Here is the input.
Amino acid sequence: MHDQNFVEGFSKLNKKKKIDWLVKRYFAGRSDARALLERYMHADDRVQSLHDGFIENTLTNYWLPYAVAPNFLINGRTYAVPMVTEESSVVAAAAKAAKFWYPFGGFKARVTGKVKLGHIHLLYYGSAEKLQNFFAQTREEFLRRLKPFTENMEKRGGGILSVELEDWTRRLDYYYTVTFRLDTADSMGANFINTILEEWADYMEETYPSFGRPDELEIIMRILSNHNPGCRVRVSVEASEQELTRRTGIDDYARRFETAVKMAGINPYRAVTHNKGIMNGIDAVVLATGNDFRAVEAGAHAFAASEGEYRSLSSVERSDGMFRFILDIPLAVGTVGGMTRLHPLARLSMELLGNPGAGELMQIIASVGLAQNFSAVHSLITEGIQTGHMRMHLNNILNQLGATPGEAEQIRQLFATRKAHVRAVKEALNRLRNKK
Here is the structure.
């Protein structure tokens, strides 16, 4: 028996009826709910229709700020990098780090691999030798049959790199995978990879009965992996330790910074927050370019734990008086297809970056991640994270408290040299209002 909020056929309703139902069932006591939903719809019906098609059951748009972080010198070229995020101080921190490292030659980045993975997960109830023989005898024929699906990707420089049968039976009875290594060129490649997997699995099910009993082979699923340690980018910045001390005014700055990063390398509680700072920057650029930030996040955290213990994604090297800060991270992104070409602002982002290929975009994104990490660690070993964060967060506090423009300016001046905690700002604003 269903309660009154259960609904059948919701997806078949038009947008107005969806909103009518939602307001009636969940916002009966709130008079502005409908107006709020309608306020964030795009004024251009064509643009709104495009957005409506991105997902299911669309009611309105959820806006996030679109910003740029200028002065990113990456491999000798200066970029203004688009970023989409709701978190205070992220863009400011990225821009500050970019400016800091500019006179030192900026960021040096290189792609170390573009291999992506996909798997057919299956159970096999016969002998391992029999399955291996089946795989060996059908492999080349299956590759030939996939040509209609791979030839366009191959023309762009990608395609299937290898296909292997892997035995997982020591971990789970009867469990094997057919593991694909692929290069998807400038596309993220999810649809391409999953199509290849499904076609190969269909060929297996179609062909196997001529080798053995049909019930010996049970295909459970076919799906790409978001753990792609072979699709990686490495980015670094470097300067002399003496110059860092001069620039920061802090004696032994390089050692303190290195120690902070080493702590994130051995303490998972610190490592998670350390890596979250990296992803603050990476996710913002991934979102701005219409890529899949959830896949990038999952891959990064899996890589951070790939040695059996969760660790920092960045590291420090110190030798011969030089300081090097390094980020090595998997990044599976694309610059063609999907949202990167469908969303107008994603297209604008690509144009802003000079319409990069996937490899160049990987380098840009990783550079922003390292910049974000540098700013966070720098703050932690100097003034503390809250000073800069709360300075940027002050505007949000003032908006939440309903401060007028005049009140906001006076409060900003008051907190120009001290920390702006919510309680302190509220008390200061109350005192200001009581004087009137």
In short: The domain at 116-224 is CATH 3.30.70.420 (Alpha-Beta Plaits). The two ends are 59 Å apart (CA to CA).
